[in-house]
Amino acid sequence: MVPKYYALASNLLASLSLGALLGLGVYVTKNTLVIGGSPTPGFRVIHIDQNSWNVGCTIVGTAVGILAILGYSQHDNFLTRQGIMSDQGVVALYLRPLTVSRSVAQVIRGQLITTRILLALLTIVSTLSSAATVAIFGVHNIDIKLTNPVPSFPLASYNDTFFETSTDGYYPTVPLDEINLPELEAFLYRAAYIGAATTNDPGGFNQFSTAWISPSGAIGDTSYSSLNTGGIGLNMTSYFDFSGYPSRFHMPSAYTFNDLSGVVYGTHVNVVCVNSTANYDLDYSRLDDDIAVFKISNHRNVNFQIVQDTKSPNDQLLIGAAVSGTSTTDPILTIAVPVELGETFICDCTYSGREYMASIIVSSRLSPLEVVAEVNQGPFIGLDVKWLLARTATNFLRKPGGGSLISAWTSTSWNNGGDNNTDTAALLSTILSQTGEAQLSLLRQTAERSNTDTQSYKPHSSSVTMSVRITMIGSGQYGWLSLYALLLVGALLGLIRTLSRFEPASPDVQDPVKVLGLMLNNDTINDKTRLKIDEKIEVLCSSHL
């Protein structure tokens, strides 16, 4: 006879195990437990060996499933022993111990008594306990979305103080003081080189040319698909890898970047250069046989000079620049290309532009930032931005030898000798427009980091959503917890039923050996008894256990 406490003990142990796993499962599902890295707001960290952990989850899940099946089997045994003593008796099928195969047979044969069918279904479902445990507690690579509600800012806010957060605290920064001039000068060279090479040979300058330079590539911390950045400066490096603690959204410290999309600010810059040689006075003189001096002036009080070493190999294409105007007027950038034996070229360049908001996408870590569409137009750029761009261009052009611009033009043999200025004004317009947008992109990159913010600016229509893959405990889904809850209900039902009823006096009728002894009226039959069938069951010999 199977004592009552077998059913009590097995269901109690199953209930405790399932209850503990259910509680832990709720905790794990509610809290994101990331593998590796350091703790950040919203993300807890655990350091484990992933393979060993998953093996352990499988073992625990299997053990709990076995406990649950044992508890349901003892519950079913208890019901059968009670039913066999009643007036109604029990269906012969229930003389078989509760197993998965009996449960399937019970369903197929339509034995759908409420409690019995529940135990049968629970037994079948228990086979999924290992899968549920791995799903809830195992290590998984999960894709999640993180939304930065304030990733980008209008130019009007860039005089404010921004704060960059890190593990050590807050660091103030003023974006206008942090422009990456070496990076911008490198961009100027690339823009001038590609512009000149394309103008020289529109059909021959391509990726198959030995002189080819790709117009796409990184500018600062962000890659762009062309030289026209659109003044967009979302700092992608700070999103590719954890840079610090964001103040407006939560970000894990360990993740793999998938993609990013959203709406950010940009600024179009349009520089128009026109041939103004006729509006200037040019005075040419020589200090000695090798040094030539070009003095350029006009009625706007533009007055500057360019000194050239005419001795080879220093007698290269020369350029000079000056910016004129007042604090209340638009700046005019004057660029001069003097030629000792020929016509000196002078052009005036004016700046204009407008802010806008653009829908962007970055498809992968190796993909450039691409503009999907412009979604909103903002204000025109002010005098302070125009002067900033014009002064920066002037500083580059005033460098010895003409700086990056002349270096790029020399490399492409643009206007070799300075005697062909037909396309110079249009080319300068393109180069300066691209460089102006690149400057604003670099400016924005100093502030538009994932971990940078300013308290003086309120949330607006700009936002970006980043998809990342994290390695974490569990899948973050509650569905598998329902399986634990269902198994727990079954175990508790067995515990309550066995506690509330008297132990039946019947023998264990689910033990086929004992049933056989009853049928043959032979109390010597035990587990070691040898049997054979020859028209009927015959006992060959009996032995005591």
Automatic annotation (TrEMBL):
Q: What protein name applies here?
A: Transmembrane protein
Which superkingdom? Eukaryota
**Which species is the source of this protein?**
Trichoderma asperellum (strain ATCC 204424 / CBS 433.97 / NBRC 101777)
* Keywords in alphabetical order: Membrane, Transmembrane, Transmembrane helix
Q: Which residues cross the membrane?
A: 52-72, 117-139, 478-496
